[in-house]
Structures are given as C-alpha cells and as structure tokens.
Write a structure and sequence with these properties.
With about 350 residues, this protein is an alpha/beta fold. The protein has two domains: about 190 residues, Isopropylmalate Dehydrogenase (3-Layer(aba) Sandwich), CATH 3.40.718.10; about 140 residues, 3-Layer(aba) Sandwich (Isopropylmalate Dehydrogenase), CATH 3.40.718. It binds 1,4-dihydronicotinamide adenine dinucleotide (NAI), 2-OXO-4-methylpentanoic acid (COI) and magnesium ion.
Amino acid sequence: MTKKILVLAGDGIGPEIVDEAVKVLNVVNDKYNLGLEYTEDTIGGAAIDKYGVPLADSTLATAKESDAVLLGAVGGPKWDTLERSIRPEKGLLKIRSELGLFANLRPAILYPQLANASSLKAEFVAGLDILIVRELTGGIYFGEPRGIRTLENGERQGYNTLPYRESEIERIARVGFEMAQLRNKKLCSVDKANVMESSQLWREIVTNMAKEYPDVELSHMYVDNAAMQLVRLPKQFDVMVTDNMFGDILSDEASMLTGSIGMLPSASLDANGKGMYEPSHGSAPDIAGKNMANPLATILSAAMMLRYTFKHAESANLIEKAVGLTLDKNLRTADIMSMGCDKVSTSEMGNAVVAELKKL
Ligand SMILES: NC(=O)C1=CN([C@@H]2O[C@H](COP(=O)(O)OP(=O)(O)OC[C@H]3O[C@@H](n4cnc5c(N)ncnc54)[C@H](O)[C@@H]3O)[C@@H](O)[C@H]2O)C=CC1
Ligand SMILES: CC(C)CC(=O)C(=O)O
Ligand SMILES: [Mg+2]
C-alpha cells in the first residue's frame, strides 16, 4: 500500500535539511518496500513568494489527503516586515491547527558521542533521555482576542490571550501519561499555576487524571523552576508535559543539553496517528544556503514518522542506529564540532548516514 508524504521544505535551511531526510527515507523505503510516495509543495515565506499566502488552500488540501507531512522550517528576514496575518509562521500555525496536530513530541536524547558538544558537563548529561510533550494547537499562540490596540491616551498596547479548554488539557495530558507509561513512568507537568488561571485549570485536570494512571509518578513544576532544573539536573526528568509556549521555549533549552538544536527532532500528531514531522529548530537564516546546517534533527524526525505514523519501528530504529554509527566515525557539522572530529557539510552528513544505513 502506498504511503503518501507531503514534503514542505519551506525557508532558509529547510530545503537543505529536508533533502537529506528524503535521501535517508529512500534507503529504508527500498529496503523494506514501504511504498513511500512524495508530493512536493511549499509553506512559509517560499509560499508567500509563490502563492501570496504562507499556506495555500491547495497545499492544505494535499496535506489533508496525505498520510504524513515532512517539513523543514519557515521564516526569515525577507518576510519579517510583512503584515502579521500573512507572515511565514502563520502558515505553520495554520497547518498544525487545521490538521489537528495537538501533540508535539520533542525527544531530547544525548548521543553519547556528543557528550563534549553539550552545554553541560558530561556528568550531568550522560544518558540523557527526556521527552517533552508540548501542546501544539492551543494556548497563547492561537488565543483570541489578540492584537495591537490604541489606548485612550494614544499609547499602543500589544495583547494576547492564553486560553485552554478542559478537553484540550485532558487530551495532551493523556499523551503525557501514556508516553510516561511506555518509558520510566515519571511525568512532570509544567505550568505557571501560581499566577495564571489557565495554568490553574491545567494543574487541576492533570492532577485529577493521575488516578487513571496509578503506575505513573506525577509531579508539577512551575515553568521558571523547570527552566532552571533543566540545566541544573536534567536527568531528573523523564516525560514533561506542558503548554504550547512553555514547550516551545523549554525544548529549545533542552536541545542544547544534547549538543545542538540541530539534534532535536519532533513529531506533531493528531488523535489518529497522522502526523507532521519537523526539526524543532527554525530556518536558521544565518547559515542558510551554506550547506553547513545539521540535518540530523530532520533525519531523526523522518525516523519518528516511520515509528508513529507508519508504525514501522524497525526502520525507525535503523535510522537512529545509522545516526549513531555516523557520529562514531567522528563526523560533525559545525554546530556539534569538537576537537579531534572531522567537520562535514549538510550533504556530507546526510550521505554518511545513508552509507551507514546501507550497511545495516
Ligand atoms: N518550526 C519552524 O519553522 C520555526 C521557525 N522559526 C523561524 O526561523 C527564523 C529564525 O529563527 P531563530 O530564532 O533564529 O531560530 P533558529 O532555530 O532558526 O536558529 C537559532 C540558532 O540555531 C542555529 N540552528 C538552527 N538550526 C540549526 C541546524 N539544523 N544546524 C545548525 N545550527 C542550527 C541557527 O544557525 C541560529 O544560530 C525566524 O523567522 C523564526 O520565526 C523559528 C523556530 C521554529
Ligand atoms: C512559529 C513558531 C511557533 C515555531 C516554533 O518556534 C516551534 O514550533 O518550535
Ligand atoms: Mg521553537
């Protein structure tokens, strides 16, 4: 049976890193006869240039007909001055929302070969394996009302709203509990319940759900403390579940424990296993077009696609193993470079993973 993948490379380093992930997918496709079929389209700034909007209706329709989406990244200085409603990032938020991709899984795993690339000393990060479960279609990135208004005294005021419905909290918390059950059975719910009503409701609902998961040890933490604990003692965490903005920020922070944001993959899932797979980082305009971005987060996101949407754990495991074997060869893109290693380009890194994969 064919498996339809919509490839949306997007902006900046997007096309460079997505190319490498597709190369890697092609190897497992041939090996296991997976029937992967690609359609290419675009999103973000590239879509503004092509269609006049950051996500064309036709692209969204193709995404809805596809089994999975592989996405690079969106955004860049070229489009930063556009009116807010048509900025590249709006396309990304819209596709997540329209596809119902409420559960964003961001695993922060330290490959032992990269212990020296981590921002923390090796003793703090050795064996690190945290899963951040981020709510992706609600909260302050979507809340209404929002805008920039002019007050009576003529001063302008920017405002956003952070709403969470009970059902939105419950469904993401359930993902957190279930992921914890599959792992080390520890769930830390991160909120700001000492200040915000939406967090108070969040904490109440998560607390009530704990009864259904007696095997999971639940804890709660305020987000400011969580940010600090992530760099103090990161291995205290197993699964963290949190809202859209907190998860966005904490996952970038956690990425540096693994050596680089270029190592952090993600899966954005709906209720039925359909998903969009994208690295956790952005379009990195500062290094775009230089063939120096790290493609591993995108390659590892492709592995997550095989695991979560196509239920083919064997090929996902193989890709992750090939990444480890490539790092064993001391090949490093600039962001994870350390002494005694060989610096490689984006495409050289992708080719090296392909070469290791073909040997397995
Ligand atoms: N999912 C997405 O499409 C996201 C898009 N953005 C957009 O990307 C643009 C740039 O945003 P920034 O805040 O600079 O975040 P960014 O994640 O693009 O870059 C932050 C820093 O990390 C580096 N970096 C990121 N990915 C890398 C990789 N694969 N290999 C090596 N180094 C890497 C960049 O060079 C930069 O120094 C903005 O327009 C922003 O809105 C930001 C985050 C996520
Ligand atoms: C448009 C942003 C919400 C993208 C982002 O920073 C992310 O998803 O990590
Ligand atoms: Mg982010």
